Amino acid sequence: MKIGLVSDTHGDYKSWEKAFRFLKECDIILHAGDVLYHGPRNPLPEGYDPKKLAEAINSCEISILIAEGNCDAYVDQMVINVPITPYVFTVIEGKKIMVNHGHLLTDEEIEKLILRYSLDYFIVGHTHIPVVKKIGKCTLINPGSTSLSKREDKINSIGFVEIEKDRAYVINLENGEKIID
């Protein structure tokens, strides 16, 4: 089972197309929020076309689960036919996975959720900076942003979880090379 991890697409259809080159081999896609709107503090993404991105998500043949981000609004649910919820909790091949945008959670609150639900993976977004780290037995993953990277090198990224290998990593959206393993 291969899980694709996406966050902070911010309405950028062109970056979704780039990401989908890699995501199309996944069994499911988990999106950690900020789907359509770019937000008032972010620049307008180069490929900004939220209507086209909504259509791509709606027509995607791979199941997508979406956690609500701070830039997501009620109106987004009117054009996206996938539920957008504050938390996504799922069990895939016996692994407990939670997805939340992360903008309202402190590190301490994340650790409490990990312990309370005995999570194997916790997926967050918001910072636009990719992270893969262990917190106890849980792997915390931020796949970064597909369109508005806040890394120094401005690399846009997505992540993956390979359940059988108990492995999580993040790749450069331009060339597919791993940037965090």
TrEMBL record:
Calcineurin-like phosphoesterase domain segment(s): 1-165
Signal peptide: none
Pfam families given in the database record: Metallophos_2
EC number: 3.1.4.-
Named cofactor requirement(s): a divalent metal cation
Organism: Caldanaerobacter subterraneus subsp. tengcongensis (strain DSM 15242 / JCM 11007 / NBRC 100824 / MB4) (Thermoanaerobacter tengcongensis)
Protein's name in the database: Phosphoesterase
Domain of life: Bacteria
Molecular function via GO: hydrolase activity; metal ion binding
Family: Belongs to the metallophosphoesterase superfamily. YfcE family.
PANTHER family: METALLOPHOSPHOESTERASE, PHOSPHODIESTERASE MJ0936
Keyword line: Metal-binding
NCBIfam families: PRK09453.1, yfcE
